[in-house]
Amino acid sequence: MNSPDNSGASAPSPKAAFARALSQKDALWRVFFAFNGAIALMIALGDGGFFHTFAFEEGRHDAEFYTAWICGLALGVFAAVFDRMVGADDHLRQRPIAAEQLFWHRQRAMGSILLVWFLAAPLAGWVWLAITQRTAVFEPMGVISAWASFVPAISAAAIGYFGASLPVRWWLRPFVVAAAFLAAFTVIHHVTKADDYHVRWLYVSLHLLAAALFVGLARLACAADNDPDRALPAGVRFVAVPLVVVASILVMSGVMTEGAREFAVELWREYPQLARYQGRVRLADLHNAWRNGRARLCDGDHRRTDLMESDQWTHLRFGVPQYRIVSLLGFREPRWHRGVDSEWVDGQGVYLTRLGEAFASSIHGRRKVPTGIGPEHAPFSSGSRINSLGAGKERILVVDHESNRIYCYDQKQGFFVPLPLPDGDRLVRMRWRALPKGALQLLRDPLVQEGSSYGFVDGEKSSYFLDDGKWVAIPFVEKPEPWRERSPVVVGDGWLKVTVSVPASAGQSEFSHHYSPRTFLEYVYAGLAAGFALGLPPLFITQFSWQLAIFALAMGILLGGAAARRVRRIGGAPADRQLWLWLTIVLGPLGALLSLVFVRPRTYRERPRLAAAPTPRVFTPIMKELAS
Description:
Layout: H1 14-25, H2 27-45, H3 50-55, H4 62-86, H5 89-93, H6 99-132, H7 140-150, H8 152-164, H9 172-191, E1 193-194, E2 197-198, H10 200-221, H11 234-270, E3 273-277, E4 280-285, H12 289-292, E5 295-298, E6 304-308, E7 313-316, E8 340-345, E9 348-353, E10 358-362, E11 369-371, E12 385-389, E13 395-399, E14 406-410, E15 415-418, E16 427-434, E17 453-459, E18 463-467, E19 470-473, E20 489-491, E21 498-502, E22 511-515, H13 520-534, H14 538-541, H15 546-569, H16 574-587, H17 589-598, H18 621-627
Antiparallel strand pairs: 1-2, 3-4, 3-7, 4-5, 5-6, 8-9, 9-10, 10-11, 12-13, 13-14, 14-15, 16-17, 17-18, 18-19, 20-21, 21-22
């Protein structure tokens, strides 16, 4: 039997066949990242409970945020180095595919993985919630809020791919990734933060904009080679390199600032503190007194001397005015709003949103059931607080923000009922403290012990605690706080040196001490703090000390001349020499370090010409023959 003739069937084009081969080559790592990343994000979603995540528009997504950018950064770096890591990079260059086509193939692979993360993680969490807790609560705004916390995975993946694929030396790529990531996330964090909360739409928009920017820069650099004799593409030179330089300055300045601050703090921990002992103000080492109750006196040179007797001294605290410099580095998880507060008593949970809306649920067969004040379920005012109080059997209470009234949740009726204080007393505050002496006989619960922490309500007339749903007044008044010592007066910049004075009082003379490094360890901490500060640009150092700023400016001028000479020696153009001269003067040691990293020797540079050998004074026939 003759086989059918397939000669007329169209064969796949070489481009399509090669694209399919690329997909098969990357199938292993794509499946690995898609599967494990979705699992990691699903676990992060359930960190605070799937019901709490899906039923409400959460206020904080710390687990989702950190998991998302860690997975995204790893994905971008791995996608950029995979071919180089398995030795397929040279093989791909010899195949009929352009560098830009290979770049977009990797971007599509990363995009498909990110799409799996965004869809699979919430779906798997909802399935887990429906199976284990028998509930189908799935509010769209809760999912949208979680997706907003996933968005940093997109920008982190783009940053990782950009930094790991740059045509620079291998050891410089991790530095570029770290600098670009920290700078981008820090700027987005501070720009979108308003009143301790983030503007969600602006936060998401800036992360997507950062992802598009770094993907575009990576596309410009995809065809460039790591050759110092060949100029980078114009887009990389005029956009990517300035961004990397600015990011490097931000990151290194942040590191130097944090280092200076930390060593300054360690210096002040090493300094002796003030204590009133035997009727006098003395210098004393009180750092470990809270642990073992032992403290030593110090002399004027900060050397430890005699041991003070326990409970015979009073600590005189004073605040040191810290330097006003703001850290340039640091970001935290996004916060969209106050979110949801909840309290649980006897398997019954009550949730209170930032807008005053209340909902009830149960552990088994959870449902988001509306509740509120009275049978009509009236909402509370915005900013109301929820808490649980009670001896033994606790009750769920809500303090309404506007009316300042207390409402108690009635589990049988399913709504809140007023719980006024006795004798028309008005609420002042609600707080937690130890159970006072003599109050134990007022409680009917034998499990409550004297001295245990307990929730109280303070009114204008008396204080009250809740016992079996009823207010019980405390028939005594707390002891007044002891008379505070006169606060010491601090004069100085408050960084490394400061003068502290204690005003004279009845029978006691004035005390004054100038804090400055005196012991070996204090000099070490002060030197390290000043050394980190000198690594900053001179303009930033003025927030620490003007003397350090002048010294840093002089050092920047010397380093700038050295950097310009090095650029000329390795074949740099006159414009490059002028650029790094002024950058080093303005940035200080950071500019000199950047010139060492980014300016590479040119192999085409002009070599110094050797001078011709002088004509010998003794001209023999042999030398005459050689000269001719």
